[in-house]
Amino acid sequence: MDSDSSSITHAAILASGEELVTGRRVDTNSHFIQRRLASIGISVVQCRQVGDGIEELVRCLEELRSVAPLVITTGGLGPTEDDRMRDAVARTAGVPLEEDPAARAELERFFAERGRVASPSNLRQAQLPKGAARLPNPRGTAPGFRVGIDRTSVISLPGVPFEMRGMIDEQVLPWLRPEGGEAIREISLQVVGLPESVLGERIHRWMADPSGPEVAVTAHEAWITVTLWNRDGGPELLKETEKAIRAVLEPHCLSDGYSTLEEEVVNRLIQRGETVSTAESCTGGLAAARLTEVPGASAVFPGAVVTYSNAEKVRNLAVTESDLEQHGAVSETIARAMAEGVRQRCQTTWGIGITGIAGPEGGTPDKPVGTVHVAWSGPAGTIHRRLRLSGPRGVIRLRTAVTAWEQLRQALSVEDRGG
Fold it and tell me: Can you name the residues that pair with 46 across neighbouring β-strands?
């Protein structure tokens, strides 16, 4: 039978798939699960990757359920012959597989809505260990399930990340903490536009304080995550530390309640009743793509212009040929003209212009690879920033796109404060 979910304090994770153990795919699922469990006070004591062999799956399940009252598995629930997680869990529980009528009905409806008929291999996904509680998967065809094995609860979820993440948030966490459970024991802050060395100096005293929350820094390609979590203190100390760290990281720390930079930009623009458009050269539309990942972005983002060639800059953004000849495409003058041109073309409150050299070729002594000009045109005029970035082409493009939105976020924050 299931253990008492409200009393679970630690768990284990088992990610299955030959592509994981051979290095063909990175296991991002386990990291996501670890973070979400930590947010409700459950620590992960073991995390393993395993191939598709049934014997190895059973062995790992047996070992993990001996060290944790909760084991969460990902992968192995698909329709193909090498999807064996449901078989392994059933064998570990000592029960047969049996068809779940509701799971079969969902599968048949899923395919019927797409004008298809579920094949016998697809219907394998309706086979669950006897006695298991089905976990619906509204984003795909593989249902998950939860089954009790002695004093351990095993929760099996599909390996497709966006399917698994939805099921964790909508079904697993509410089951683990049906009344909200413990107060949040982990807080993550997203920091943009601040070098890691400078950030480390600013928050050193909290990182070195053994009596306060534990503080860790993770550097990404274009931003930094600062994570705080309780050792033994209560939520009040965690919130106090977060407030103090935010104060020394301003204005580079995202506002509370926003998980991504672009999400904050979209919501600030919505609140202000304003719009933005982008004109991109070296980023090739990446800034626009990142913003439109945010649900509701259409309310503030009517369009963008990607102009790689000089001729397109002239044709679509009213950039003058004389400015191109005098200053070159990668220049402050052209970035400003692009920002102003796209703002006029799209009739938006704000316009952003981006031009640069992402490499690996095209640099000169005066304008080496990594030289980027970004301009922001708004109601009060146009401002410009020259960037000198390093790294491969993809990193330069990403850092440029992130900088474009970070500077706009800061401009909106200043105006909101009346500065």
Answer: 12
> Based on the domain organization, do 335 and 407 belong to the same domain?
yes
Q: What residue ranges in 197-284 does DSSP mark as E strands?
A: 214-219, 224-229, 276-280
pTM score of the predicted model? 0.70
Per-residue pLDDT of the chain (419 residues; tens, 9 = 90+): 455 677 898 999 999 999 999 988 889 899 889 988 887 888 899 999 999 999 999 999 999 999 999 999 999 999 998 999 999 999 999 999 999 999 999 999 988 988 999 899 999 999 999 999 999 998 888 999 999 999 999 999 999 988 999 999 999 999 998 765 554 567 889 999 999 999 999 999 999 998 888 898 989 889 999 988 876 656 788 889 999 999 999 999 998 877 789 999 999 999 999 999 999 999 999 999 999 999 889 999 999 999 999 999 999 999 999 999 999 999 999 999 999 999 999 999 999 999 999 999 999 999 999 999 999 999 999 999 999 999 999 999 999 999 999 999 999 987 665 54
Phi, psi of 361 (to 5 degrees): -115, 175
Question: Is the CB of residue 51 less than 8 Å from the CB of residue 21?
Answer: yes
Range of the domain at 241: 186-249
Domain assignment present for residue 259? The answer is: no
Whether residue 371 is contained in a domain is answered as yes
Q: Estimate to the nearest angstrom the gap between the alpha carbon of 150 and the chain centroid.
A: 36
Confirm if 275 and 282 have CB atoms less than 8 A apart.
no
Q: Is residue 255 part of a domain?
A: no
Where a domain ends, among 176, 206, 222? 176
Domain boundary among 121, 154, 176: 176
Let me know whether 57 and 191 are in one domain. no
* Domain count of the fold of the chain: 3
